[in-house]
Amino acid sequence: MASIEIGQPLTARGKATRARIVEAATELVRAHGVANTSLDAVLAASDTSKSQLYHYFADKDDLVLAVIQRQTECVLATHESHLRKLHSLAGLRRWRDAVVELSRQTDCAGGCPLGSLVSELAESPRPRELLAESFARWEALLVAGFRAIQVRSGTSRDCDLTELATVVLAALQGGLLLAQTTRSTRALELALDMAIDRVEAQLA
Amino acid sequence: MASIEIGQPLTARGKATRARIVEAATELVRAHGVANTSLDAVLAASDTSKSQLYHYFADKDDLVLAVIQRQTECVLATHESHLRKLHSLAGLRRWRDAVVELSRQTDCAGGCPLGSLVSELAESPRPRELLAESFARWEALLVAGFRAIQVRSGTSRDCDLTELATVVLAALQGGLLLAQTTRSTRALELALDMAIDRVEAQLA
DNA sequence: CTAAAAGTGGACTAATCAGTCCAGTCATAG
DNA sequence: CTATGACTGGACTGATTAGTCCACTTTTAG
């Protein structure tokens, strides 16, 4: 009732405050999970107050929805920058290397920010829908990349690019989960290599 | 200090009480996650009292360790019963079907009980180690199955069965995560099919 | 200028949580 | 039988939590 609905006015200052809250919440959730992130911690990290938070969000669940959306934009932006210029299998393997390197840089901690949200929120309808959309957009990015490879190589063999994108994403998520558990990028490398070999076999 | 250490006496009644607590906690954690499972809820579900819980466990973290171990035994027992009698690729595909069917029966909810624990506990050293051991045992089960297939088929081609087990497990985990998000077994089926095709290519 | 609305600060509440404590019951070894 | 220790019931505490409320300041529209 006290929360911002669609179309409600928002001054520049208001927008900035809201953004500060979402940014701080996203960072805390990525580091500690939804359940282990208290609103008080968000307020402290964003230098705001209770009344501000409840001015812009109906409740914690509402804030979590905003966090999912922001995290989605962050993750997709990272991959989009790599996948946009994709036009060969070698480029896909460079993407693989970048993903592995990113995981290595954080010592394999945290896993995928979106994947982690799934196991915590997948039983709540609205968050689950949002995450499903995020993965769909991620797959679309991969499909676009595959198509670019196909176009460049000339051989437009008939195969389901969407299915390929799904298995690549599954390999990525599964690989990251095992990497997070073992604190080694080995499983991630093997899983992505398998998936990319599959792409090569289907595409070429 | 008040908890049960290794070697401490445990009567039959005590063992039963401890088991009841772990069983209830495991079920609640599987359904709602560690952070969303309160000790009071565990007590209510197991029909025990605070003093009993703290008689057998040092604190909540200690109970969580027991939950990880019990959940590991449950999951591995399920897969062991399928993988033990493995001696052909057809058998491996039947295992795939069983995994898919199991996911379908719960409407893809919950994902893998061990995988879900990872994203919630992977940043705590001891739980993470335990989960890493669980996955290592799971991979060993797969390796044993692959070896049985290799022996039966006669062709003992030289390939790294451990790597194969890792990618199959990664495909399973990633597939389950996407299945949980989309509420469809499609991603799980595709990911497992890809991994098993890989096994076939490497093994035969 | 001025009034209405947007935005803010922080005290407060009620519920829930992990963990403590102690008085007691039960089982069993000697 | 009896004493020791395993086992149990549940009240209690202090900390933390999400969420409420109201007085106040700042911005904006007319």
Automatic annotation (TrEMBL), chains A, B:
PROSITE patterns associated with the record: HTH_TETR_2
An example Gene Ontology molecular-function term: DNA binding
DNA-binding residues (ranges): 38-57
Keywords: DNA-binding, Transcription, Transcription regulation
Keyword Disulfide bond included in the entry's annotation: no
Gene3D superfamilies: Tetracycline Repressor, domain 2
HTH tetR-type domain mapped to chain residues: 15-75
Protein known as: Transcriptional regulator, TetR family
